[in-house]
Design goal:
This protein is an alpha/beta fold. The chain contains twelve helices and six strands. The protein has one domain. Helix content is about 55%, strand content about 5%. It is found in: Membrane.
C-alpha cells in the first residue's frame, strides 16, 4: 500500500515504559487474554489475573529517551506503522468531520522495545500480540508479531501488517464512540452472551479496518486485498484453535466471518454498513 511518509506533527508515538493507572479490567484486558489464548495458548484467566494484578498508580506510559522521529525511524516496521497511523488519523478524522460528530481524538502508538512494558491496562508482554488499551487510548504493537503473522498467513506483505494496525485503531474508534462501553455493559448484564458479543465487536473492528482501506483504495496495490484476506483467515478462531475450542467459546470470529467483515469494509468504504450489517444498527 502506497502510504505517504509520516510527519511527526500528525501522529502521537511514544516509547514503551512509564506506568499504568489503577482501575478495573477494561475491554483491552479481555482482548489481551483472548489473544494470548487463541494465538499463543495462554490461559485467559491467568492472563486477566496478571493484567489486573499489574495495575499501577500513575499516569499513562511516558516517553523514555527517544523522540517520535527516532522511534518511527528505528526500523522498517516502525516506519511503516507510523505511516499507517498517519493515514488512519487522517481517514477517521475526516469521517468524524463528515458526520459532524465531535470528540475525535487520535490514539497513541507504542512499539515496545522490551519484553514487558507497563500500560493503563496492566503489564504488556510480547507474547500477548498487538492490543489496544482504552485506559490510555494507546495501540501497542510488538513488531515481532508481524513475523509470527507472516508464518501464520503463509506470506508477508505490508497490507497484512497494516490490517492489524487498522483493526486495533478500530478499537480506539469503538472506545471514543462509546460502542465498546455498551458492549462491556451488555456482557456484564448477560454473561452467557459475553463471547458472542465480543465476536461482534471484533468483526466490527475488522470491518472498520476495511473501511480505512476502502477510503484509500487509490493507494492499494496489486496483491494487497489477497494479503488482507489471508491474514484475516489465518487469525480466525477456528483456524487458530484447530478444532480444539468449541464455537460458543470463540471470541474473535471464524476465518470466514473475519474475511467477510474485512471485505465488507473494503468494498463499501462505508462505516455505516459495518454498523448495520454486523451490529444490526440499521
Amino acid at each position: 500500500m502506497r502510504l505517504n511518509p509520516f510527519n511527526t506533527g500528525n501522529i502521537k508515538v511514544r516509547s514503551s515504559g512509564g506506568g499504568g493507572r489503577a482501575g478495573g479490567i477494561g475491554c483491552g484486558a479481555i482482548v489481551i487474554a483472548a489473544l494470548g489464548y487463541f494465538i499463543f495458548g495462554a490461559d485467559p484467566m491467568q492472563t486477566i489475573g496478571m493484567v489486573e494484578g499489574a495495575q499501577q498508580q500513575s499516569g499513562p506510559a511516558t516517553s523514555a529517551n527517544q523522540n517520535e522521529q527516532e522511534i518511527c525511524s528505528s526500523s522498517a516496521y516502525a516506519t511503516e506503522a507510523c505511516n499507517g497511523l498517519q493515514s488512519l488519523n487522517q481517514t477517521w478524522a475526516a469521517i468524524f468531520q463528515e458526520k459532524g460528530v465531535g470528540g475525535f481524538e487520535t490514539p497513541y502508538l507504542v512499539l515496545p522495545s522490551t519484553s514487558t512494558w507497563r500500560t493503563a491496562c496492566g503489564t504488556g508482554q510480547a507474547a500477548m500480540g498487538p492490543f489496544y488499551c482504552p485506559g490510555d487510548q494507546t495501540i501497542y504493537i510488538d513488531t515481532g508479531f508481524y513475523d509470527q503473522l507472516a508464518r501464520m498467513a503463509g506470506e508477508g506483505g505490508d497490507f497484512a501488517r497494516l490490517y492489524v494496525l487498522a483493526h486495533e485503531y478500530a478499537h480506539h474508534v469503538q472506545t471514543i464512540t462509546g460502542l465498546s462501553g455498551q458492549i462491556r455493559s451488555a456482557q456484564q448484564q448477560n454473561p452467557r452472551r459475553a463471547n458472542q458479543l465480543n465476536v461482534l465487536m471484533e468483526l466490527h473492528a475488522d470491518c472498520y479496518a476495511g473501511v480505512w482501506a476502502g477510503k484509500n483504495r487509490n493507494l492499494i496495490e496489486f496483491g494487497d486485498f489477497e494479503e488482507g484476506m489471508n491474514a484475516a483467515a489465518a487469525i480466525g478462531d477456528d483456524t487458530i484453535t484447530g478444532g480444539r475450542v468449541s464455537a460458543e467459546n470463540f471470541t474473535h470470529g471464524t476465518s470466514q466471518q473475519r474475511m467477510a467483515a474485512l471485505r465488507l469494509g473494503i468494498e463499501s468504504g462505508d462505516d455505516t454498513r459495518c454498523d448495520a450489517e454486523i451490529l444490526g444498527n440499521g
